[in-house]
Amino acid sequence: MSTLGVPQSMMAFLIGAQIAGAAGAVAFHLRVGDRKGASPAVVLTLASVALIVLRTATL
Hints:
The chain is mostly helical. It has one domain (11-57). Helix content is 75%, strand content 0%. The protein has helices at residues 11-31, 35-57. Helix 1 packs antiparallel against helix 2 (35-57). The radius of gyration is 13 Å and the shape is elongated. The two termini are 17 Å apart. Keywords: Membrane, Transmembrane, Transmembrane helix.
């Protein structure tokens, strides 16, 4: 992200937005009964949470 010129101060916000979007995708897949389609969204949500945890641990 630094190559793209994104300031480090924005990273927590961007990762938070990614978590919110991925969690929303999971919720909507489950809402319509699409459990098979929810699996990739769950993986993305967990990856996003891992990123924010690792980012917080390195501060």
